Amino acid sequence: SDIGSQKERVVTEEEWLQKWEMGNIGFHKEQGHPLLQKYMHILLNGRSGLRIFFPLCGKAVEMKWLADMGHSVVGVEVSEQAVKEFFSEHSLPYCEEPVPEIPGAKMFQSTSGNISLYCCSIYDLSSSIVGKFDGVWDRGALVAVNPCDRQRYVSLMVNLMEKSSSYLLVTVSYDPNKHKGPPFYVPESEIKSLFG
Ligand code: SAH
């Protein structure tokens, strides 16, 4: 199928911040995502005490689910509003500190220590800053990344994964000539070539 019409599209960080300010966040699922419930066992694979990464996390309630199960959650999100709403909507006390390696970035951490949300661009992160992960929940992340940045995004994600990690990816399927995205249409063939 032809994804030509979306290939050149760019959504700036400023536009994402505006979406949060305007409350234009139709992607947020208050009840969490049914597909994570369905495939949780694949993500965890019987393991406990995992480090789970949420790229482009928004205020995804699934971060609370996994933390409550005893895992340690790390997310990254450009919108500070989103990060603060996450903690306040779950009544979680948190502290806020600068990230020495990333000028201008802040890290918000629950007082209990098991949820750390980096407020910066995902492209500022590396495994030397956030370590490696046993699992990734990618919903609204690969499909939200600008099409021109997909390879860079995927290379980073592969770098952030432990050898034994599991990666759950949610995509959407639709006619890319009828909607401009995001979410962008990422055909399965492209997912295979991106991740190898
Ligand atoms: N995964 C979340 C949010 C999906 S919407 C969920 O399932 O609800 C995509 C989110 O990515 C938005 O909150 C947007 O502010 C954020 N975002 C966009 N570009 C980003 C970037 N380069 N780095 C970090 N976050 C980004």
From TrEMBL:
Its EC number is 2.1.1.67. It catalyses: S-adenosyl-L-methionine + a thiopurine = S-adenosyl-L-homocysteine + a thiopurine S-methylether. Belongs to the class I-like SAM-binding methyltransferase superfamily. TPMT family. It is found in: Cytoplasm. Keywords: Cytoplasm, Methyltransferase, S-adenosyl-L-methionine, Transferase. One of its GO terms (molecular function) is thiopurine S-methyltransferase activity. It holds the Pfam family TPMT. GO terms for cellular component: cytoplasm. GO terms for biological process: methylation. S-adenosyl-L-methionine binds at residues 16-27, 56, 77, 121-122, 139. SUPFAM superfamilies: S-adenosyl-L-methionine-dependent methyltransferases. This is thiopurine S-methyltransferase.
